[in-house]
Amino acid sequence: MSNLFDLLVAGLATGAIYALVAVGFTLLWQTSQTINFAQGEFVMLPAFLMLAAMHVGAPFWLAIILGILLSMILLGLAFKMLLVDPMMRHGVLPLAIATMALAIGIKEAVKQFFSAEASPFPSIVPTGDITVLGHVVSLQSIGVLVVAILAVFGLTTLLNRTSLGHQMQAAAQNPTVARIIGVPVERMILLTFLINAFLVALASLLITPIYLAKFSSGEVLGQAAFIAAIVGGFNQVRGAIAGGLLIGVLDNLAASYISTQYRAAVPLIFLIVVILFRPQGLLGRAEERTV
Amino acid sequence: MSGFAKPLKIALGLIVIAGLIVVPMNFNRYGLFILSQWAVMTIAAMGLNLTLGYAGQVSLAQGAFVGIGAYAAAIMTTHGWPLPAAIVVAIVLAFAVGWVLGYPALRVQHHYLAFVTLAFSTLAFLVFRNESWLTGGIYGISNIPRPHFFGIATNKPLPFYYVCLGSLAIVSVAVWWLIRSPWGRAFMALRENPLRAQSLGIDTRRYTLMAFAIGSALGGVAGALYAPLTQYIDPVPFNLSLSLDLLMMVIVGGAGFFFGPFLGAMIAVLLPEWLRFTEGYYLMLYAIAVMGLLIWSPTGILGILDRAMAARRTKAASALRAVAKSRLETVQ
Predict the structure, then answer these.
(1) Which residues contact B138 (CB under 8 A, 6 or more apart)?
(2) How many residue pairs bridge chain A and chain B with CB atoms within 8 Å of each other?
């Protein structure tokens, strides 16, 4: 039983990061029908921005601030203005392909300008173990879980409790009506891109100390976040959170109870089953058909 | 104007074909390998173009079918079977698996379908890697023989290039015929408006499954040629990124255009080679080129040509109209 408890904690910690990444993915989908195939690379890049800042002598806290700011400019503002805006009216598929190309571009740029080797990354939460209810749990897992939960809690409060959040939701659900009642839809869309950039920077900060900073580390993470978003229902923020936690736990349990070789297959089979029987996701609402 | 267009097109086509046959004769080993790779990837992309471009079903699993074809060919030819038999088996196998993969398309569309096929692609990769009794696992299968045709060995790069080119020619003619047949029209009806297609009496169920199965079968053909081309296969080339690459080829070339896959594969296979002199920057430049092209023309390269031709036709038509109008006026 103790083993199961440990697996659950570790699974929830990974799941919380998947949730952070998946939430950004659902935000972009809701406001601008953008499927961002580079979301995994978006998580990888901020860690390298922070490392670069430390290389030129910035202390860790300053590097974090610079990294987050830079990622909001590059992955939020520039991504929206240079790639999404010119392609938005052409439909989902060409834009999705363009983000695939963007993923290649980011990966290669990091490999070329920084390093092809994995670099260590300092942790923002203290390392070590503590004993909870007779179980040894790593502080890092708890730290990741706590920070991710706080971020998600902050985001849902923003969306559901503030006027700004209501405007964002209105812009996402029905841009035409939102525009009529005076919501600055364009600004709300930009805001969601900035929030996505902030969330991926935060995820980067949490996950990189555990898995090291490597140019290729976005692939696995991006895919896990997509699966999480779809399983949970990617037109719902709470769906993405639930999906992230579920996939994190499932992945950890599958690795120790089913087979390490087919560990990656378990979430995928789960994904196929969910799509076939409940395409809108476990917590999603059905989108009206356009045909 | 249009009287010249057709002979001009035929002449251009003949020049290109002759060029593809003659020019590579003095290419080195590597150049021939790249060109053969272009021919093989074009076949796979043509399959995806049928599924995506003509029938409108998004698939991120074409790379997995190339893998299925490649493993079928590798396993059979290393056990002494001739390559044509292996190609037939690859076609049948990929067709059957593609048919089954089509079933989700009956329930879900667009991005959901993209993710089901993406999941399938990753699952196929896991099977290639883990079932080592059949696929050799991470060590792969080596010493894949190249075939003999009519007593001529194709071990050398040039003869095998002609095998790839010949296969491409056969597939091209078959696809050309297919998209002009009632089947192709049914596919396009499926893409344009599934509901109307159904009301016209098209069995959308059957044609959706067919679109997947035929597209996948061509992926299988490409794989069956890829295995003897590289003479060594392991799971890595058939992971998700091959499926994404093939999708990029189709979109960049121009989805739903017959010649789209030829151009798309040329860009995906040759452009990185041409940019290789830039060393570490080549994939970065490639990514920027693809993004730039898609911003400029989301319908791909042939989309640009198509628009230019449409614009010229409009211009010619309005010129004719102006002439007719002035004649009318002079008569009055």
Answers:
(1) B129, B132, B234, B235
(2) 108
Residue A102 and residue A124: Cα distance in Å, rounded? 29
Give me the percent of chain B exceeding a pLDDT of 70.
98
Cβ atoms of A155 and A23 closer than 8 Å: yes
pTM value? Answer: 0.85
Nearest to A51 by CA among A119, A127, A125, A140: A119
Determine the Cα–Cα distance for residues B93 and B78; give it in Å rounded to an integer: 18
Alpha-carbon span B81 to B29, nearest angstrom: 26
Task: Round to whole Å and give the CA distance between A9 and A26.
Answer: 25
φ, ψ of residue A138 in degrees (nearest 5): -75, 140
**Considering CB atoms only, which of A87, A104, A276 is closest to B283?**
A104
Chain A residue at shortest CA distance from B280:
A112
C-alpha separations of A165 from A75, A194, A201 in Å: 21, 14, 21
Of B116, B119, B298, nearest to A90 by CB-CB distance is B298
Tell me the per-residue pLDDT of B239-249, one tens digit each, with 9 for 90 and over. Answer: 888 998 999 89
Sequence-ordered list of residues with C-beta below 8 angstroms from that of A141, at least 6 positions apart, any chain: A9, A10, A12, A13
* B104 contacts A101? CB cut-off 8 A: no
pLDDT band at A291 (very low <50, low <70, confident <90, very high): very low
What is the distance between the alpha carbons of residues B19 and B261, in angstroms, rounded to a whole number?
Answer: 19
The answer to whether B254 and B264 are in contact (CB under 8 A) is: yes
Helix axes A265-277, B83-107, angle to 10 degrees: 50
Complex ipTM > 0.85: no
| DSSP calls for B254-315 | -TT-TTHHHHHHHHHHHHHHHGGGGGGGHHHHHHHHHHHHHHH-TTHHHHHHHHHHHHHHHH
Contact A265 B116 (CB under 8 A): no
Q: Is the pLDDT of residue B191 over 90?
A: no
Facing residue for A93 by CB, picked from B58, B194, B281: B58
Residue A277: what pLDDT? 84
SS (H, E, C) A169-222: HHHHHCHHHHHHCCCCHHHHHHHHHHHHHHHHHHHHHHHHHHHCECCCCHHHHH
Q: Which residues of B touch A95 (CB under 8 A)?
A: 294
Average pLDDT (B60-79) is 95
Instruction: Calculate helix-pair angle for B240-253, B260-274, nearest 10 degrees.
Output: 110
Positive or negative, the CA dihedral B227, B229, B233, B235 is negative
Task: With residue B180 as reference, give the H or E element that holds it.
Answer: helix B157-180
